[in-house]
Amino acid sequence: MGWPSHAVGGGRHDWATYLERGFVEPFRNALRGMPEVDAPVDDGGRTMLMEVLTFARGEPWLEIVNLLIGAGADVNRRVSGGRLVWDFAPTSNPRCVEIWRALIQSGLDVTTRGVKNETALMRVCSVYHGSGNYSSVEAIVRLLLDAGAEVNVVDQYQVSALQSAAGSGNIKAVKVLLKGGADPNLAATSRRSALFEAAVHGHADVVQALIQAGAQVDAVTLGSRLASYPAFTAGIVDVEGVTPLIAAAEGGHFQAVRQLADAGADVNRADASGFAPLMGAARTGHAKMAQFLLDRGARRDAVDASGRNAQKHAAEFQQLSEIAPLLKRTPGKADPV
């Protein structure tokens, strides 16, 4: 017998209103009338615990979660589509931490894999908060690691928890993961490394933390970029051999570029198409970055596979007025060899 989906006479059943508004006592009474706490609430097999977690925002919902757990709700239940209880759990506010704590203390298996072969740790680290406030995520990551979550495993896309946290700019989670044994170079030779993820998005604090943890600054990966300008006519091309420095330069992320170069990244290392960091800076029109790369020894005469140098890339992306003065060769001064 499942939870009733409609009230007598039509409309939503009362429990749906109780959940939305966090009414604890009415929900407690509704729960007493249910012979099976994990009875489905919809055709997909979602349990009431899963339903509650989708609404959970604070203290009342934590109490409802504890009511369900106390009544025997299975914290490791999987719906017919493959999603697990933890996939419904919130991460966006401090009270969410207590919800995760309750789930873990009730026997949540932190090693089980979700629909995309992800773990709860990967899912939590992949959350992006536009506000940049990741305090709750950091605390949940600590709980999961303390409960035995595996830190150096990947999902079906070969992405780890550290790579996800780095890409979302979650410096707090990155530091916790590194302290917990996360390998900063996991997948660095096949997929986008954590350092690449941080560099391409311009998360300078994450870049610095990963470098300090021993990340390979010149590790290459498959990247993508605009074939030419404008984007709507040129399209995107995939390119092998892209370094974090190339990605950061092309994204206009000067602080990340500086950190990578200071850590020894090769300013003249090009990808498989011959595209070098200076060309990326030229495309963005970032004169300060271009000057920095030139000062570090970038070759202004380097050309890519199509014969374009940095100046031509700047012209193509309508940035020549900013970049051209820097790319003019100083009389009597040759490029570094």
Question: What does this entry look like structurally?
Answer:
- It is a single chain.
- This protein is mainly alpha-helical and 337 residues long.
- It has a domain at 219-337: Serine Threonine Protein Phosphatase 5, Tetratricopeptide repeat, CATH 1.25.40.
- Helices cover 45% and strands 4% of the residues.
- The protein contains 18 helices and two strands.
- The protein has a two-stranded antiparallel sheet.
- Helix 5 (94-105) runs parallel beside helix 7 (135-146), helix 10 (194-201) packs parallel to helix 13 (244-250) and helix 11 runs parallel beside helix 14 (254-262).
- It is elongated, with a radius of gyration of 26 Å.
Offer a quick outline of the entry.
By secondary structure, the chain is mainly α.
